[in-house]
Amino acid sequence: MQITDHWHPPVTDMQGASVAMGNFDGVHQGHQRVIDLARRPDMPLGIVTFEPHPREFFAPDSPPFRLMNREARANRLARLGVEYLYELPFDAQLSRLGAEDFAHKVLAQGLGVRHVVVGADFCFGKGRSGTASDLAAFGRELGFEVTIAPLLADGAHVFSSTAIRTALTEGRPRDAAAMLGHWHRIEGEVLHGEKRGRDLGYPTANMSITGLHPPQFGVYAVQVDVLGGAHAGRYGGVASIGVRPMFGVNQPNLETYLFDFTGDLYGTHLSVALIAHLRDEQRFDSLPALIAQMDADSQKARDILAALD
């Protein structure tokens, strides 16, 4: 997959695509429907999205809300067969463009798109002044086709990133997965931590969740994809998300213990899929009590993961 982070000067080597456009946070089933409508046999499949998320630009001090970081979104889109990923820098220049200027300067001139698919609720341009219908009108003038995708729903519920955040906040990763169409994953680099897990017999891979919507704190059964290096592959595991109350208040993070694994993962990138919430975070009276609970958590996680196979 080719990735670009600019639209000016024009992206001359990624022209002529059929693109789906939006933020694609989570790449849930509604997003996948939009992407599927952009598939054309005679055009490369592309995604037009924004980095940072416009909400982060306009409200930088708001609580973290993203389901995916940039890396995780790109990995998911690549798995869906996307050939061109246009990660447009959402900055002061882009935010000031009106709807017509965005269609003309960015889509037609900068990216040279031939077909654009957006959801029925898509808005664009300064002040979110442009609608999906406006985009279709601009497309007719500028020479690209526009398809408006209806919102995808399951019964009375529309698939949305908001509903997925709610499910994760409530510790319901399976419900989140049903809306996503895949397990919710946290991806990133393994960082050096306090190495307490190693002393307890449970060495963990530590990852930051800064900037992401935090799932319910606690312990999870997880599937872990090691994305490169000598240990690349898929492993079962058990993970803790939270502030580690046994050891004082800390920055929330993700600590994952990989079953039947030995080796060094520092600097490696992992993709950790949340399968089941096992319990909330808690403080124990002693380290032996904590270790006994970790043993029980590991066995429960193994049983849950075995049932998936």
**Helix and strand string, N-terminal first?**
EEHEHHEHHEEEHEEEHHEHEEEEEH
State Rg.
21 Å
State the end-to-end CA separation.
30 Å
Instruction: Estimate the strand proportion.
Output: 25-35%
Low-pLDDT residue spans: none
* Top-tier CATH class of the largest domain: Alpha Beta
Overview of this structure, please?
This protein is of the alpha/beta class and 309 residues long. The protein has 2 domains: 153 residues, Rossmann fold, CATH 3.40.50; 125 residues, Elongation Factor Tu (Ef-tu), domain 3 (Beta Barrel), CATH 2.40.30.30. The chain is 31% helix and 27% strand. It is built from 10 helices and 16 strands. It has a 6-stranded parallel sheet, sandwiched between helices. Strand 13 and strand 14 form a beta hairpin. Helix 5 crosses helix 6 and helix 7 runs antiparallel to helix 8. The two termini are 30 Å apart.
Keywords:
single chain; 309 residues; alpha/beta; Rossmann fold; Elongation Factor Tu (Ef-tu), domain 3; 2 domains; 6-stranded antiparallel beta sheet; 31% helix
Give a concise summary.
The chain has 309 residues and is of the alpha/beta class.
